[in-house]
From TrEMBL:
Protein's UniProt name: Oxidoreductase molybdopterin-binding domain-containing protein
Xref: Pfam families: Oxidored_molyb
Source species: Microvirga vignae
InterPro entries in UniProt: OxRdtase_Mopterin-bd_dom, OxRdtase_Mopterin-bd_sf
Positions of the Oxidoreductase molybdopterin-binding domain: 64-134
Domain of life of the source: Bacteria
Length: 160
C-alpha cells in the first residue's frame, strides 16, 4: 500500500471559520459538528475539499480485482475540519443509498476519492466523491461489511 499525505496539517484549522463554497457544492455535512458555513450544515465545493490535503493509494475493490489508484482527501481531515463529534457517520449517495460508518473506521484512513487512475470521477462513474478504504493493506477490509461502506456518488455525511 502506498499512502501519500500532502498539504501540511490538513489545511485550515478547525478553529478558523469555514468559508462559503465558491463553486458547486459536492458535499454537505450535518449533525453533530461544530463548524458550519450555512445554518446547521457545512457545505464543501471541490476546491475547499482539496485544500484539506491529499491522499492516495493503490488497492483492489469490490468492483475491480485489479488494483486501481485512488486520489482524494482524507476523510479524517474533512471530519476534523468541521469539528465532527460522534460515533457514527451516516453516508448518503446521490441515489439516496445510505450506510453507517463507525468512527472507528478512521483507523484505516479511508479517503474521499475524487480521481481513479488519474481521471476525475464524475457522477456517472461513481463520483464526484467515493469513500474508499485501503483494502489491500489490511486483510480485515476484504469483507462485505467494509465493501458496503465504499459509498460512491457520496453527497452527504451526517454525524451522529
Amino acid at each position: 500500500m502506498l499512502v501519500a499525505l500532502l498539504g501540511g496539517m490538513w489545511g485550515a484549522s478547525a478553529a478558523e471559520p469555514l468559508p462559503h463554497p465558491q463553486g458547486a457544492v459536492i458535499l454537505t455535512i450535518t449533525g453533530n459538528i461544530t463548524q458550519t458555513n450555512t445554518p446547521g450544515q457545512a457545505q464543501f465545493d471541490k476546491t475547499m475539499l482539496e485544500a484539506l490535503g491529499k491522499a492516495s493509494y493503490t488497492t483492489s475493490s469490490e468492483v475491480s480485482a485489479a488494483p486501481m489508484t485512488f486520489e482524494g482527501v482524507p476523510l479524517r481531515a474533512v471530519l476534523e475540519r468541521v469539528g465532527a463529534l460522534g460515533k457514527t457517520i451516516r453516508a448518503t449517495a446521490l441515489n439516496a443509498y445510505q450506510n453507517s460508518i463507525p468512527m472507528e473506521d478512521l483507523q484505516f484512513e479511508p479517503i474521499l476519492a475524487m480521481k481513479v487512475d488519474g481521471k476525475v470521477i464524475t457522477a456517472r462513474d461513481k463520483g464526484p466523491l467515493w469513500i474508499v478504504y485501503p483494502r489491500d493493506a489490511n486483510p480485515v477490509l476484504d469483507d462485505v461489511r467494509y465493501d458496503s461502506r465504499w459509498v460512491w456518488q457520496l453527497s452527504k455525511l451526517h454525524i451522529e
